[in-house]
Each structure stands twice: as structure tokens, then as C-alpha cells.
Amino acid sequence: MAAGSIAVGVVVLGLKLLAWQLTGSAALFSDAAESVVNVVAAGFAFFALRFAAKPADANHPYGHHKAEFFSAVIEGVLIVLAAISILNEAWRAFLHPEPLDAPLLGVGVNMLATVLNASWGSLLVRAGRQQRSPALVGDGKHLLADVVTSVGVVFGVGLVVLTGLPWLDPLVAALTAVYILGSGTFLIRDSVGGLMDAAPPFEIVERIRQLVARHAVGALEAHDLRMRHAGRVTFLEFHLVVPGSMTVAEAHEICDRTEAALKAEVHDMTITIHVEPEGKAKHHGVIVL
């Protein structure tokens, strides 16, 4: 799908550049500038997904999954740079306003590109969530954000045509840049959280705790439960306290049963369980009945 994003991005970019050339609109330039980012970001996502799919090796025993977060961070930085470029163009157009050429034709071409972006962006987000891929989700959300800005740009160009006020064009471009800047900032924040091994949302962690408590029957306690995401893979580790008289085979059976239940709930999960005797109980965390 990442390769498809590159192809779609090139087509959309061509259409938006044509719309800008037809009209000379600063607002349509802002839309085209973001599409340049889309193409470059799709290229990064393509290579990041291929690298992340490589199996673990001696130098990367936990795999290469975090490469997707690097792709998302780079995309966020590119979005911010695009916003700065748009603000610069909006300021130039505000100082030297010019009437728009062939605005209706330009808007029509731009809307065709917007429909294409909306369709592909929705597909990417759905596929990314199913595959738990930050790179695909980030790419899809960026395209959907592009759709929002495109609709705003078309609205602004329409206002210029209806009112005859050329300064509205750079104003819409500047507002578009502010929106794009926020989109890039949030994408960087979320991706850096993944690189820093941020914990999943509270609801997910609590669900995992409940599953451990329900399926680790025979154990006394589970504590020090920790989770993190690395691309589409979730890493989970915790300590499982069992009676001192329990055999290794019996403790292992509890671990196998618990792991099976957890992996049925969360796909692509890597689980590490440290079994301890009852003297190691801390009496907090997940109490297993």
C-alpha cells in the first residue's frame, strides 16, 4: 500500500500543481505544497515499512519495528516545513495581490485531486489500524488532513471570486498553513512517544490486567506489568508469583494458557513472564484468584 501511496501522491500533486498554474492562487499553492510533502512522505513510509518487516538479527534482537516511528517523525517535520513555505507564499501574495486566472477550472481540477486523496487516505487509515502500522496510519491521516485543507482552500477561492477581494486568497492560505502546522506537530508528538516507549492507553493496559487475572488461575499474583509498542508489535512483560510447591511444568502450563489468551486479544504481541515463588509476592499489581 505504501507503493500505491507514492503513485496516488504523484497524480494528486500533478493535478494540484495544474490548478495552481491555472489560477495563480496562493491558497491553491498551499494545497500543492502539502502534496509535495505527501509524495516525499509516502516514499519514506515505503522504505520504513520494508525495513520494519525485516526479521530480528544479532544487532536488532527486538526487530526493526520502530523504523515506522522514524518515518512518521520525518513526515511530521516535512509537514511543518511545508506550513512555513505556505506562510511565506501567503505573505508574498498579501503584499502583492493579483486577480485569479480561470478560478473555476482550477477549482474543478483541485476538487478531482481532493476526491482521490479522500478515498486513498480513508483506505490507508483502515488498513493501518488493522495491521497496527504507525507509518500507514500516519500517511493516511496526513492525506485526510490534506482533504480538509483542500476543502477550505476551495471555499476561500470561491470567496475571492464572489467578493472580488484578492487579499482573501493569501488569508485562506495562511489559515491553511496554521492548520497544517498543528497537524505536523501532533504527528511528531505521537511518533516521538512511540520512540520513547510510551505506554499504551490506560484502557488497553487495564484490559490486559483483567485477562492476566482471569486466565492465570493457579498463580498467586502478577506484578510489575509493563507494556510498550514498537510499530505493529506490542511488548508485554510481568512477574508471575506461584506457590513454592508448584512444579516447573505446572507453572509453565499457566504461562502458556495466559499467553494464548493475551495473544488472542492483541495480535503481534511478544510476552515475557518471569515466574517467582510466593516469597516474592508484593501484594499489589494484578492479584490472581
Automatic annotation (TrEMBL):
- Name the GO cellular-component terms: plasma membrane
Source domain of life is: Bacteria
Ranges for domain Cation efflux protein cytoplasmic: 200-278
Query: Which Pfam family, any one, appears in the UniProt record?
Result: Cation_efflux
GO biological process: one example: intracellular zinc ion homeostasis
Q: Which UniProt keywords apply?
A: Membrane, Transmembrane, Transmembrane helix, Transport
SUPFAM superfamilies, per database record: Cation efflux protein cytoplasmic domain-like, Cation efflux protein transmembrane domain-like
Key word Endoplasmic reticulum present in the record?
no
Keyword Manganese appears in the UniProt entry: no
> Which parts of the sequence belong to the Cation efflux protein transmembrane domain?
5-196
Gene Ontology molecular function, alphabetical: cadmium ion transmembrane transporter activity; ferrous iron transmembrane transporter activity; zinc efflux antiporter activity
Membrane topology category: Multi-pass membrane protein
Subcellular localization is given as: Membrane
Q: What is its main location?
A: membrane
Residue ranges crossing the lipid bilayer per the database entry: 35-53, 69-91, 103-123, 143-165, 171-188
Q: What family does the entry list?
A: Belongs to the cation diffusion facilitator (CDF) transporter (TC 2.A.4) family.
Q: What PANTHER family does UniProt report for this protein, alphabetically?
A: MITOCHONDRIAL METAL TRANSPORTER 1-RELATED
Q: What is this protein called?
A: Cation transporter
The species this protein belongs to is Rhodovastum atsumiense
Starting at the broadest rank, the lineage of the source organism is: Bacteria, Pseudomonadati, Pseudomonadota, Alphaproteobacteria, Acetobacterales
